[in-house]
């Protein structure tokens, strides 16, 4: 893979930001700039004018994501919102890693999603074509209303509803083709032979003598990759409305092929809602959202990267074993790596995984006493994931002995089965008061909410039996059940689980303004949760914010270039209840070990963890201050904010006998956000715009369990004074060029060394190389992220483009570093290895006799900065006069290219790597974020 230099695109971005970047919403007319500050923003349990809010809320219209080739709407937000980090995976049906304003927890990091008032863990069940808008809430004054769910930020999704007017039918369809942008650089067969024989020679072993048998040159990535994968989306929406009744119905179908063969994903969605105006003061409505997805049989490229290229995928020698998949060489990885093509083709379509989601809802709303409104909402969330799997039995060819063997050594077929079910009932009762007293505007809201969550799970497996008169389990989904007659009942295993959680909340909010220029927002919420022990279940969260619209002051009347300026600030105490555990305050027993009773051996049960009577949710102390502005006749907008988030009382699971939970530790994230935009009209028929954003983030672990405590997570570390998730290892100062070089350096206590091995730095100066010389070698959090877009429209013809980049983060390469465990294929960079004095001072000799050179070090660190042309779209919106004869209200034709080009520095399919709160940014080769070229049509009748 060739990596282009990032300086040029980054320089362009920096120059661009210096002029007029950002803005988080594209407008179709310059006159609408004034309406931007008057637009209604959806906030928690209500809505308000943007002008009346003291916090930072970004709004993305549905038009910006409706026609993008993505199943999950979140994926299309990448680069559009300051402070919003999205790491996409190109694998069909996968979830993005989403973080708002950095990582400040050691638990779950994802924001809370609210879809038409319903809390959700993700929004992969939503059809992007059904979305009206998405609001991203980032500051304490807007998040405190969510209490113990607000610490990680929130994304509010508002879906389309029926509109007043005659019946309209909207049809949209797109068809795209995938291709890989980047791929890792690995050695070919001749290069592998050179490196492998050198490895053996350096271990004092003879050269491999079977390359006459294994003489192929196989690119395993090409063997398993799906070339020209298809992605298609088809949607229909019917809307009708009168003053008394507004109805909307939609149906969507998404189908997608992955970057690996046989990774097929499809999803059907439907949505229905009906809004009734019963009288001038009474309104009601009900709706339904549904989704049914067929998940792909997920594979990966790991085997294709590690398998030696000297093996042909299939035995083509005429004879008894013709057509069998070849085994890898017995001495070169056969025990650790299966034939990648056999894994993909031999087990194709042996996993049937399905997701079903069903969300009915209803509301009643009425006005009374002129200024009061009461609204009652009821929601149900039913989600079920279920599936069956089959493990076939087939033979592979052993070239060394000219024999066949069972793949993976398995003589018996097997089946697996699972089902996970979630039923959630949510209801809230909201009372709102709005009034204006002279120069005073006041909105008060009080609410009560309960959430009841029940989950059930079942999983099991069983094998077929050779002694079974029916024989092996057939490769037919009809028989992939645990109760199949083909199953050997003595091999059956079954696991079940069940959990319950109940939450109750009381909350309120006040929005106050004086003379429409002095603003005050305040929120208070008290949450109770059954997950915590009795006596400690309730906690209180709050926030307050203020703003001043400076341009309404008389002393600003002569500042004509500045049309709007608001300075703002907020402070709050938010909560984080994101946890996998539901019973902190109760003893939970799991199977572990055995016990003897009456001379018989029985399974024993032990405590999974010690119950915690004084545990509480994490608290986030957060504040921000900044400004919003418009100038130059509202053509230029410029916003900026400084934010600081500090989580206290981190929720830790501590190793023990048994493990126990403890509130201890603190993490801070802070930085700046800048957004700007320019929109103008040249002549009557040509409009153009520029938008962009930039975010800086710095994280630091302020406190851990106790002084001196260090937590290790793979090659990441959790320690006081370091960024969260920092990579930890040795610093390489070069390669030992000779034995004299070795004798002149601090001796190693972590492994024997020879010329050609790494020379690790003696950081603590104690005269030896030991584990105490490890240090921080990288930070996975970028110094800054940025995104910008530009576009124009001329007489219906339009062109727009989105760009995205990150800068200043490190990536830890966890593949291709050499392993004493097994001989794997090599990165192409290994051809620059040390072969004698002066030949290399960075790439070590080819040697896997020990793990010394594979210890975590800055040799594994790569520059994670990248710049991407995220999306380019061109098309034509037909003039109504041209299509009126076709009974069309609107017609749009377009071509779109997503992930057109990426410039990066990593040896991988993609420079993007997510993960957990403390272990992320690992280059495990990843999965391609493919380039997608598509054509589409959108017609309204």
From TrEMBL:
How is the protein disposed in the membrane? Answer: Multi-pass membrane protein
Q: Which InterPro entries match?
A: Beta-barrel_TonB_sf, Plug_dom, Plug_dom_sf, TonB-dep_OMP_SusC/RagA, TonB-dep_OMP_SusC/RagA_CS, TonB-dep_rcpt-like
Q: Supply the Pfam families for this chain.
A: Plug
Localization terms from the record: Cell outer membrane
Entry keywords, A to Z: Cell outer membrane, Membrane, Receptor, Transmembrane, Transmembrane beta strand, Transport
Q: What are the GO cellular component annotations?
A: cell outer membrane
For the TonB-dependent receptor plug domain, which residue ranges apply?
49-154
Which family does the record claim for this protein? Belongs to the TonB-dependent receptor family.
Give the protein name, as stated in the record: Membrane protein
Q: Which organism is it from?
A: Kaistella antarctica
């Amino acid at each position: 893979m060739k990596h282009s230099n990032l300086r040029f695109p980054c320089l362009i971005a920096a120059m661009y930001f210096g002029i007029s970047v950002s803005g988080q919403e594209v407008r179709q007319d310059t006159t609408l700039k004034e309406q931007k500050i008057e637009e209604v923003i959806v906030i928690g349990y209500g809505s308000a004018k943007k002008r009346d809010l003291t916090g930072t809320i970004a709004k993305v219209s549905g038009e910006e994501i409706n026609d993008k080739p993505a199943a999950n709407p979140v994926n299309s937000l990448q680069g559009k919102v300051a402070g919003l980090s999205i790491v996409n995976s190109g694998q069909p049906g996968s979830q993005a890693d989403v973080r708002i304003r950095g990582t400040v927890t050691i638990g779950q990091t994802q924001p809370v999603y609210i879809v038409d008032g319903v809390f959700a863990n993700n929004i992969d069940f939503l059809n992007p074509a059904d979305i009206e808008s998405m609001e991203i809430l980032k500051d304490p004054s807007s998040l405190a209303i969510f209490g113990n769910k607000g610490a990680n930020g929130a994304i509010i999704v508002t879906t389309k509803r029926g509109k007043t007017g005659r019946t309209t039918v909207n049809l949209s369809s797109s068809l795209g083709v995938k291709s890989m942008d980047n791929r890792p650089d690995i050695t070919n067969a001749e290069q592998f032979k050179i490196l492998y024989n050198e490895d053996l020679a350096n271990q004092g072993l003879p050269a491999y003598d079977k390359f006459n048998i294994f003489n192929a040159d196989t690119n395993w990535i090409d063997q398993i990759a799906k070339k020209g994968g298809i992605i298609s989306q088809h949607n229909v929406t019917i809307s009708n409305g009168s003053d008394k009744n507004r109805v909307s119905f939609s149906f969507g179908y998404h189908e997608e092929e992955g970057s690996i063969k046989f990774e097929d994903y499809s999803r059907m969605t439907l949505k229905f809602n009906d809004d009734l105006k019963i009288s001038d003061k009474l309104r009601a409505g009900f709706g339904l959202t549904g989704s049914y997805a067929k998940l792909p049989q997920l594979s990966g490229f790991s085997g294709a990267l590690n398998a030696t290229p000297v093996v042909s995928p299939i035995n083509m020698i005429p004879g008894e074993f013709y057509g069998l998949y070849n085994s890898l060489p017995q001495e070169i990885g056969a025990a650790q790596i299966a034939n990648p093509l056999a894994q993909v083709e031999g087990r194709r379509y042996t996993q049937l995984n399905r997701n079903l989601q069903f969300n009915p809802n209803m509301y009643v709303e009425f006005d009374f006493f002129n200024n009061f409104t009461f609204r009652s909402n009821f929601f149900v969330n039913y989600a079920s994931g279920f599936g069956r799997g089959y493990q076939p039995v087939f033979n592979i060819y052993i070239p060394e002995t000219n024999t066949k063997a069972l793949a993976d050594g398995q003589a018996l077929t097997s089946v697996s089965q699972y089902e996970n079910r979630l039923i959630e009932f949510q209801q809230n009762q909201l009372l709102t008061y709005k009034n204006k007293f002279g120069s005073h505007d006041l909105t008060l809201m009080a609410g009560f909410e309960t959430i009841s969550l029940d989950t059930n799970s079942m999983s099991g497996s069983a094998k077929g039996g050779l002694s079974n008169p029916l024989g092996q389990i057939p490769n037919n989904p009809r028989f992939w059940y645990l109760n199949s007659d083909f199953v050997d009942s003595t091999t059956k295993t079954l696991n079940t689980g069940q959990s319950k959680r109940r939450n109750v909340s009381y909350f309120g909010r006040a929005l106050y303004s004086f003379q429409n220029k002095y603003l005050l927002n305040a929120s208070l919420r008290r949450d109770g949760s059954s997950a915590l022990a009795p006596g400690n279940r309730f906690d209180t969260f709050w926030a307050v914010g203020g703003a001043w619209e400076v341009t309404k002051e008389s002393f600003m009347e002569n500042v004509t270039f500045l049309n709007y300026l608001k300075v703002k600030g907020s402070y709050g105490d938010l909560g984080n209840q994101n946890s996998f555990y539901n019973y902190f305050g109760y003893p939970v027993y799991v199977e572990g070990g055995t016990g003897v009773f009456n001379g018989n051996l029985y399974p024993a049960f032990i405590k999974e963890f010690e119950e915690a009577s004084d545990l509480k949710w994490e608290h986030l102390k957060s504040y921000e201050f900044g400004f919003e502005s418009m100038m130059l006749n509202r053509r230029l907008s410029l916003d900026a904010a400084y934010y600081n988030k500090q989580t206290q009382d981190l929720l830790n699971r501590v190793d023990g006998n048994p493990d126990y939970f403890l509130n201890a530790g603190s993490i801070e994230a802070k930085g700046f956000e800048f957004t700007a935009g320019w929109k103008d009209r040249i002549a009557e028929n040509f409009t153009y715009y520029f938008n962009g954003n930039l975010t800086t983030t710095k994280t630091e672990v302020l406190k851990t369990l106790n002084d001196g405590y260090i937590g290790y997570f793979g090659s990441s570390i959790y320690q006081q004074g370091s960024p969260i998730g920092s990579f930890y290892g040795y610093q390489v100062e070069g390669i030992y060029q000779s034995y004299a070089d070795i004798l002149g350096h601090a001796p190693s206590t972590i492994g024997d060394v020879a010329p050609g091995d790494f020379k690790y730095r003696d950081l603590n100066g104690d005269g030896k190389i030991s584990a105490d010389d490890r240090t921080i070698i990288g930070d996975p959090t970028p110094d800054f992220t940025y995104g910008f877009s530009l576009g124009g429209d001329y007489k219906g013809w339009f062109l727009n483009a989105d760009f995205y980049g990150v800068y200043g983060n490190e990536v830890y390469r966890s593949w291709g570093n050499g392993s004493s465990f097994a001989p794997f294929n090599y990165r192409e960079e290994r051809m620059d290895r040390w072969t004698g004095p002066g030949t290399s001072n960075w790439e070590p000799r080819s040697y896997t006799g020990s793990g010394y050179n594979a210890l975590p070090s800055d040799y594994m660190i790569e520059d994670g900065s990248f710049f991407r042309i995220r999306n380019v779209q061109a098309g034509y919106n037909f003039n109504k006069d041209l299509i009126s004869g076709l009974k069309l209200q609107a017609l749009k034709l377009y071509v779109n290219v997503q992930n057109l080009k990426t410039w990066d520095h990593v040896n991988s399919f993609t420079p993007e790597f997510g993960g957990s709160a403390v272990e992320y940014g690992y280059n495990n080769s990843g999965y391609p974020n493919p380039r997608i070229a598509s054509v589409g049509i959108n017609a309204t009748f």
